[in-house]
Amino acid sequence: MREQERMIWCDEVRHDLTAFAHHELTGVRRTRVARHLATCAGCDDVYRQVTLLARELHATTPLIGAETRAFGRMWQSIAAQIVHAPRPRVSAPQLATGTVALTMAIVFALVWAPQGVRMAPPTQPTAVRGADDGTPIAMIFAETDDSIATESRDQDGTATPTPSLQSNYAPTPNATEAS
Amino acid sequence: MMTDSHSTSTPIEPIDALITRAVAGDQGAFAALYDRLAPAVYRLCYSVLLHREDAEDVMQEAFVYAFRNLRCFDPAKSAFKTWLFTIAISRCRNQRRRFTPPLLDITEAIGAALVSPRDEQPETAYAHASARQSLEVALRRLPSRLREAVVLRYGHGLTYREIAEVMVCPQKTAESRVRLAHEALRGLLPSAQGLLEELAI
Which residue in A164, A161, A162, A166 sits closest to A178, CA to CA? Predict the structure, then answer.
């Protein structure tokens, strides 16, 4: 049982070894790892490997990309982009012109809009008439309730019932005959 | 104006003062900020993308964005370098998402022979190049998030809290990513002791 507990303890400590090597552990965790390393040869060996790799990485990683580059040339490009960046500020003359134009537009709209747009009642719907004899091809909206049942004529003059708005509620006599 | 050689004769002006001057519209302050931080940002971008042209493009994008939005930077929230790194990492992720056909970078292919960052002895230069090449190969095989974490930790010495800020994740997540990257690199890299001995030449 003690051996099993010790193994669990070792796993927990090894989980913290990298942070311990980086001096990122504080308080209880740091003390716990330090005490365990003093008593466990296996974990101490792993810790030595971790510190060795850390030393190597500290020495080698800064070398990657450390060669001298044409930073001056790159600065020219950056400086040009900063200088030509769009400026959000609006100059005083631009602001004045814009304000005047907007005011005039509002005034014109207020003066002429009521005269230009008459609030007329909706127009009466009309039937679409045939070209030859003026026979209605189809009634879009009925003028009265009696004229809701409509029909249309083909080019040869055959009457065909046309579904009307009312047909949604009750079939018209013509529609029944045709079917 | 930005130059490739860094002058050490003039006293170093604090970053905060440079930011204040840049916000006021001083072009010289922009150049000084770039001069101070461009090598680090380029190193970060290159280490994450492992492609020179992409790293240059992303670095320029990051600086342009940062300089245009300099008024949004709040020194109470983070250091300027951390803020700039956050922008750079975000741009690196965007760059990775874009489809780019794999191209052979000839300068990378012969980089070990051409590049010598400092005036080094040939043996030292070779050892550095060899160690760097081994690490680059290992980094390419890491998932991108783990690569970012290890580069920020070892390449730039950021703490776990700063890594979390730059990667926009909880500190515990940053800690886990560093640990997982570390464990993966232990399997990917050749003997660490051998490389350290090479570097000690």
Answer: A161
Residues B72 and B135 in one domain: no
Last residue of a domain, one of B75, B98, B121: B98
Indicate if B123 and B153 belong to the same structural domain: yes
Q: How far is A110 from chain B (nearest CA, A)?
A: 43
Count CB pairs under 8 A between chains A and B: 134
Counted domains in chain B: 2
Q: What is the pTM of this model?
A: 0.65
Nearest by CB to A18, from B60, B182, B192: name it.
B182
In A, minimum Cα distance to B3 occurs at A72
Task: Tell if the CB–CB gap between B43 and A62 is shorter than 8 Å.
Answer: yes
B139 and B189 share one domain: yes
Complex ipTM value? 0.77
Residue A91, pLDDT score:
74
pLDDT tens-digit series, residues B142-192: 999 999 999 999 999 999 999 999 999 999 999 999 999 999 998 888 665
Torsion of CA A17, A38, B190, A59, to 10 degrees: 70
CB of B42 less than 8 A from some CB of A: yes
Determine the structural domain holding residue B28 and report its residue range. Answer: 12-98
The Cα B176–Cα B107 span in angstroms is: 35
Residue in chain A lying closest to B171 (CA): A24
CATH of the domain at B49: 1.10.1740.10
For residue B113, the model assigns a pLDDT of 46
